[in-house]
Automatic annotation (TrEMBL), chain A:
Protein's name in the database: Carbohydrate ABC transporter permease
Transmembrane segments: 12-36, 79-100, 112-132, 144-162, 200-223, 243-266
InterPro entries attached to this UniProt entry: BP-dep_ABC_trans_perm (IPR050901), MetI-like (IPR000515), MetI-like_sf (IPR035906)
Limits of the ABC transmembrane type-1 domain: 75-266
Subcellular location: Cell membrane
Membrane topology: Multi-pass membrane protein
Organism: Mesorhizobium huakuii
Similarity field: Belongs to the binding-protein-dependent transport system permease family.
Amino acid sequence: MIESKRRRRVIANIATYFVLATLSMFCIGPMIWMFLTSLKYEADIVTQTMQYIPRRVTFDNYVAIWTQSGFPRLIANSLVVTFLTVTICVATGTLAAYAFSRFAFRGRTQLMLGYLVVRMFPAVMMIIPLYVVMRGVGLVDSRFGLALAYTSFLLPLFVWMLKGFFDSAPKELESAARIDGSTRLGAMVRIVMPLARNGLVASSVFIAIAAWNEFLFALMLTTGQGSRTWPVGLQLMVGEFQLPWGVLAAGGILSILPVIVLFAIVQRTMVQGLTAGAIKG
Amino acid sequence: MRALGELSETRYWIYLLLLPSLVMILLVIAYPTLYGMAISFREMRLTRPGLGGWVGFKHYAAMWSDPVFWIALKNTVVWVTAAVVLELALGLLAATALNRDLPGTKVFAVLILLPYFLPNVVAGHMWALLLDPRLGVINDLLVRAGILQTYKAWFADPNTALAATVLVEAWHGFPFFALLLLAGLKSIPEDLYKAAAVDGAGVSAQLRLITLPMLKTVIAAAVILRVIGLVNSPDLLLILTGGGPGDATQVLSLYAFQTAYKEFNFGYASALSVVMFVILMIFAAAYIRLSRITKGEGDD
């Protein structure tokens, strides 16, 4: 009886590892292939017999994407847009998330729901009027304009996520500070913010990754070199110059590098915040 | 700073906290949304600046007799349904395996979650390379395994194009389900399973009587968020196929975007996205109601 139970457990463990290994391979296999491709000479990519392990390795593709195509400019634009988006979200969203988490007020539930319903708006439905409005005030083809547009779908997300982190910061310390004569503002800045620091960082990173990756708004709202971000630039390069596969792969690897690094650093807290927000909502 | 501190003691404080984000939201969401709805009742083409008058329901009437609209609607339903079902299945599998917490699970969890954070542009081109008709590694593997006779142009064949894009989307989106379902599984008390085991319930009975009912809320939330996301974002299809070949992978969001981006016909594009939004609202309301009914009353 016990013997068969143990055997069943061993079989279940083996099955679990098999599932996990298969799914992991499915997930990162394509990325590994892209990485290998980026190290190959073009002649070894366009070949009759597939080379699974590159016979010779080159960094030419990386040099090519970096020097021959305005790629650094695209990356710089993306960095600026991402930074502006995160700044706007943190500056305005932190206060709102704190208010939602700590105060009961009239219309609170409705307002929070409103922040959520915004997610249902089709991107296209936002893009067209945003384009018309921004063209009217001269914000088309500007990095600030694009960051403002990103705020339309990232700010509500940021508020929801951060509220979850504020909720899980204990209220007792805050009350103690208040009794010791601290103002509400003082308690917020000196007690609650440090407690929710990890959550603030994780929420910001989530917003940053989303802004860094965004494609559709950028395609519509940027027209020139001055504000074009890397996803749009890379996509246009593929269309215009028939970008060689190796160079395209190198560009892909370079642009997801920051995402992977950031994700690896704050992955645990971010996952916690994502699930908490979604499950309660 | 001092004055602000004093201000924080008044009853206006809460409104001051909410004001900045509210202004932002009104500015970049509420106003554009209403304006967008208004555009759908107007003639607006950037290529012909003279136009701009109100045309009532003209665009909506045009949609009714637009064959591409109906194809796109059908494709949207097929594409979203297939992708969500596949993602839910893969997500459930991943979450169940991760939830056993065997040694090394953390590493697997990071690897499995990674695709969700990758940009559409890179994901799209990566898969285009993998499935390429001349040098795609997946074709090579399938031929070697004897499943395919020759390399196949997955995205160029109207019969396989939609399925191929569903595969890419599933790769990109299933970690989202894994993430939420894992959190759901973790919130089920261990005692329930122990009690069931004592009562003699087997693995399948435990799955049917404990896991699935307890996961119902999470599954409902995940499905609804994912459906909204999929219906609204044409990115991946725009990169992979552009709606082609023919209209084999044309979906509503892509059709609306191309109408705006390529033809600058903002009026018709707005009307298309308003219809999309209304369909989503109806779906969301019906889905929430349905999952409430099956869940029983009282709990939320």
